[in-house]
Amino acid sequence: MRKAVMILIALICVGTAVNRNAFKSDISNRDVVQGVGIDINNDGSYTVTLETINTENYSNADGAAKPVMNLRTLNGKTVSAAIKSAYSIDGKTPVLSQNRVIVIGKELAEKGILPSLDFFIRDAENYPTVQIAAVEEKASDFFKNASSESTVVSRNIEKILLTSDDDMAVSSITLCELMNRSKSAGHSFYVPIIETFKEKDRPEIKSKGTVVFKEGKYSCSLNEEETVSLNFLCNKARRGSVDFNTDSGAAAISIIKSKTVRSADYSADKPVFNIKIEIDADIAESDTDAGYNLSKSEISSLKGYGEEKVKADVEKLIQKLYSDKKADAAGLSRLIYIHYPDLFRKNEKNLSGIMTESQYSVEVEICVRRIGQDYVS
Amino acid sequence: MNSKISAFQFYSILLLSRILITLTYTPKYTEGITASDMIFQTLFRFAFGIIITLPVFLLNKKNENELQNKNGTFPKIKALIFSAVFFYFSVTTVSRLDLFAGTVMFPETDVKFLILLVIVLCAYAASLGIEPIARSAVMFVIPVLLSLAFIFISLVKKMDFLNLTPLFYNGVFPVVKTSLNAVGRTVEYAVIAASLPFVKGNSKKGFFIWITVQTAITAIIFFFEGTVLGEFSNMQLFPVYTIASMAQFSFFRGLGAIITGVWILCAFLKISLLIFLQSKLISEAFGIKQITVTVVSAVLLSVVCLFVSGNVSRFNAVDSSLIKFVLIMVSVPVLAIAELITKRVKKCVKQ
Amino acid sequence: MVINVKNWYRKKVDEITAPTKSDDEKTPVKPTVAENLEYLKSKLTPSFDVKYRKSEVDGIKFGFVMLDGMCDNELITEQLIIPIMRGIYETADGEKVLEAAADLISGSIDKSIQYELNASIREMLSGSLLMFVEGSERAVLFGVQKFPKRSISEPDSETQERGSKEGFSESFKDNVALLRRKIRTPVLKTEILEVGATSKTRVCIVYLSDRVNEKTLESVKKKIKNASFDVCLGSGYLEPFLGTEKASFFSGVGSTERPDVLTAKLSEGKIGIITDGTPYALFVPHLFTEYFHSLDDYLKKPYYAVSIRLLKIAAFFVGIFLPGIYVAICTFHQEVIPETMIFDICLQESFVPLPVMIEALIMHTVFEIVKEAGLRMPKSIGNAVSIVGALVIGDAAVSAGLVAAPMLIIIGLTSISSFVIPSLYDVSSLLRVILIIVGGISGFYGIMLVFATVIINMAAVAPYGIPFTSPLSPTKTGAWRDSVFRADWRTLGKKRLQTDRLDK
To answer: What is the pLDDT, as a whole number, of residue B1?
Structure first.
């Protein structure tokens, strides 16, 4: 009996060995996708740009280096149809598990991005940690302008977005976080904007602020200063610098560590949000002459200016987001959901109205840890 | 069962089997409860688990478990009931593995041969006896727990406590219902009821440690799932696999492969154990050769699973929470209480 | 249909084989020398190296039979023939003459009395001088062996840094003597059995009587007696009979070429089996964790020993899993590849015309060919093999696009890792191939399934009631002081391991 079982196992293995699908998914038969760009056309169809690794063994006629990446522009009624049509171009199925970034084109952002992301959630190959970015042009044009012989556009985009840990002026969001924010209280989220520029005839990419979405559609754009405030508001600011003007000139503080404590309260049935920003900072540049030793009061004064600047910026952003645009990009309404579920349940249908009427109290506390190559005089 | 295994070995198998259920859970079982409630319902589950197994331990204490008695009709009926339960749960376990393989691992490949491979290898393992299965479980426990710990440590940076939700936001009843669903999916209680007479050592202490550890592990898994994924977990078929694939350690990413390995190890042991128990109970009750019953079980299992494979609606029909709940209730507390009452009545009549 | 296939195969085997049967006929020693010599000639002719001699002393007839080339001729002449021929025998009674002649011989020469002719022949064929006396129904055998044999040398397969340089040789008596030098107490027992219907190879069972499990000992003896084969040319012939009856990659029988290692095993209550004609001794029961032990572990500091053991375990798993995992990753799980490596792997593998699984299998086969050639090739042209091997497997293959560089590194690393534990090389080689195929067909899913099956198969091995996976499972924490970890000798030395307590 055992021999019969072993023969059966052997037959199964032989049977599967001749299963052609087994060799079809071999890495040499697959297009490894590093980045995806999505645009929407006027007729509602999608144009998808795939940046894949170039494994073709050719070089240009003038002997120049072969491009490291391929750019494929594909059309389809749905995103998935467009991506699957890549198979008909070179006979290789795209593999999306190495996809690093999804770039959203301008028109798609205006019409609503959530339907186009459905494929990336359903498809098991896609990782929820993929970065999302938006551009102020077509995604396909962006990829074309940003690519060169030796550039991997998606990797560069990912690198820039991941600098949000060290640079508060850069925001970042992953697919998982975006979907969380879109489904949870507030139904708003933000996506970083990137743009390309030429540096000595070589294309470079940089971050250009943030775009805020409400109900999946474009709501407003934030510049770099506003992005810093947004990061403070979302407790995502870690390191960076804040510069400000004082009576004597311009100064800058370098933020070593930052933490935002957000809490919600309510009075007279209206939420009160308390936002306390705690910053550990260096004095990067003072408003005095070079080499001047700062006194305690001067340090205190710079600290005060810094706190005022941050507070003013954050309050301005709150005004823009919650009063003007009614977009809860910072996810503050979730605090009501968590701490005051009854209040939330009562006001769920009119959340944006309630957020407009809420009170916001912003407090900033900067602790100057170091003052650079200096001592307190 | 002539050979006995130690309580530590027995509960190691059950721990791995239970971890499998948590790793493979789907949001469709959660009755729409939120992240924090998912963590809290493990406490209800703990309590329910102890309640439904009390009659079994009482029966075993008084050495009145009919499975030890090979004569009579009642042991045959009991063996048939347990075998049916174990067969059903084998079908759902293999089908779930097929769903996972077909959806996540090999979306573009026919996975029917993988089902056959699993069943054949599990049948082979079952034919070796309970002792190799028990010894293997002991060897797998530590690596499995370490793998899970490694994944969760890698996820610490991705946790966001704002993803947690207020307790009982949708009421208490959905939470209770979810935990009852979970109890219904726990075939381990039926395994305990069927195997307890053949476990040496302090099985009560072992049970208590087992149920505490598995509740703690389940709560931790749901805690990480809630804080890392938040609402996104409701959009995933296997949220635990999703959070594992989000884990990153140094330049190693996509630690979902580790969860796949853990999943398959646990499923292998569970299916082997269930096939073994079916064949052992039937062969002892009806005097049929055990290897024959093993082969017949494996063939039937293959037929049913191949029928279900690749069809989501058939899978949903087979993987019914209600059927599972009824089977567990009947085979664990109801059968034990019925047996206890019958014996009491007989004793009183004799006196 | 299965039964028909079985019967057909049995018939085909019967067509070309004959059953092994032992000549167990018992023929008593005849009272006359002529009859005895006639019987021997009928059994041994034609054999040019068997020498017969008849002598007569004072009317008493003597018959001598010996195997030329196996005996010490000088010793026979000086110490046996001359004293016997010059002896004065007061009676013509054959039995008394036999005893008197035997008494004349120096006590330093082994003497044994036989009543049965076939047993006498077997002993004579081992290098003893056989003597008959007219009128006696007994034969005397004198141990005068002097046959060509290899001297004690360092074992080839188990080199130790700090251990002794003595290894077993082909003579089982020398091997037992080496053990006696290590254990100078009366508890060391040695029992002789014979195996092989034709070869009648002597097998010596060694054990320490104060700690061996009697049931295990009886079981070993029974298995050896029931071992049926025609000739026994090595201890490997006995291994399947002594090991598990279930089909498994592991037999539960260990082997060693070193007397110090065997001594250590005996001290733990294990049983040693020394086979005449082979320098490899077997011991049972053997545990899986013991594959990762070596004598050097006990001669160096514990922390170093632990690190080496862990390294060996890691090397073992690398040797088995690495190619299969690489194939699985390249075929099904490309998401696991780090971003810094995805480009290189993609490009390299795209140039190779074969799928990754086939590439791995071919490279593995090439490596096995080179390894086998290096093993069998005469030493004088061994260098050519290494050069050709390096060329074939090395850069040229990569440059020609026949194999990708990552695959070369993987197979090279795997092969080196599998040599860390030579005794597991056959297992790891086979498992490697299986896992490459399974990884290429079904990815991690299949690899983990096969791994789980192998583990369960291993857990089922318990030929003498001691599970092969002990002390890991069943968990015997008391034995962990010397399994993966090694305690200091100040702890280890206080109490010794008793193997039969590792059962369920």
So the answer is: 46
Same domain? C277 vs C360: no
Chain B contact set for A100 (CB, 8 A): none
Tell me whether residues A1 and B295 touch, CB distance under 8 A.
yes
Instruction: Spell B235-250 as b/e; 16+ CB within 10 A means b.
Output: bbbbbbbbbbbbbbee
* H helices present in chain B, as ranges: 7-23, 35-61, 73-100, 112-128, 130-154, 173-184, 188-195, 203-229, 239-246, 256-286, 290-308, 312-318, 321-329, 335-350
Q: Note whether C347 contacts A98, CB cutoff 8 Å.
A: no
In a mutational test of the C interface, the residue from B12, B113, B135, B252 whose CB has the highest number of chain C CBs within 10 Å is: B135
Domain extent, residue C381, equals 301-459
Q: Domain coordinates of chain B in residue numbers?
A: 5-350
Q: Using a CB-CB distance cutoff of 8 angstroms, which residues of chain B are in contact with residue C452?
A: 121, 125, 136, 140, 264-265, 268-269
Which chains contact A through at least 3 pairs of Cβ atoms less than 8 Å apart? B, C
Q: Which region among A352-366, B132-146, C393-407 has the lowest average model confidence (pLDDT)?
A: C393-407
Mean pLDDT of all residues in chain C?
86
Smallest CA-to-CA distance from B2 within B190, B94, B130, B122 is with B130
Least confident of A224-238, C271-285, C489-503: C489-503
pTM: 0.86
Q: Are residues C446 and C403 in the same domain?
A: yes
Contacts with C349 from chain A: Cβ below 8 Å = 26-28
Residue C70 has pLDDT above 90, yes or no: no
Percent of chain A that is helix, strand, coil (3-state, to 5):
40, 30, 30
pLDDT in tens, C376-389: 877 776 666 666 66
* Residue that is written with structure tokens 């017949």 in the block: B296
Alpha carbon distances (Å) from C55 to A188, C42, C52, C59, C81 = 118, 20, 10, 9, 10
Q: Where are the domains of chain A?
A: 26-222, 236-377
**Which residues of C fall within a CB distance of 8 Å from A25?**
331-332
Which site among C332, C333, C445 would you substitute to test the B interface, given the most B Cβ atoms closer than 10 Å to its Cβ?
C445
CATH of domain B5-350: 1.20.1740
d(C-alpha C443, C-alpha C328), whole Å: 4
A283/chain B closest Cα distance in angstroms: 29
Nearest CA distance, A179 vs chain B (angstrom): 6
B104–A12 C-beta distance less than 8 A: no
Number of domains chain C contains = 3
What are B179's two structure tokens?
């935990």
Residue type, B215: T
The ipTM, to two decimals, is 0.90
Which of B231, B291, B296 would you mutate first to test chain A, the one with the most A CBs within 10 A?
B231
- Domain membership flag for residue C447: yes
B107, A184: Cβ pair inside 8 Å? no
Q: Do C267 and C242 share a structural domain?
A: yes
**Residue C126 C-alpha, separation from nearest chain B C-alpha, in angstroms:** 45
Same domain, C277 and C318: no
Contacts of C504 in chain B (CB under 8 A): 3, 5-6, 131
Greatest C-alpha distance within chain A: 94
In this structure, are strands A240-245 and B5-6 parallel, antiparallel, or unpaired?
unpaired
- Residue range C328-348, pLDDT digits in tens: 999 888 888 888 888 888 888
CATH of domain A236-377: 3.30.300.210
**Mean pLDDT value of segment C115-135:** 89
Q: Where is pLDDT greater, at C138 or C478?
A: C138
Q: Are residues C322 and C454 in the same domain?
A: yes
**Nearest CA-CA distance, residue B261 and chain C, Å:** 6
Residues of A in contact with B231 (CB under 8 A): 179-180, 183-184
Q: Which of B60-64, C119-123, C363-367, C472-476 has the lowest mean pLDDT?
A: B60-64
- Residue C249 and residue C328 share a domain: no
**Contact criterion met (CB < 8 Å) for C437 and A25:** no
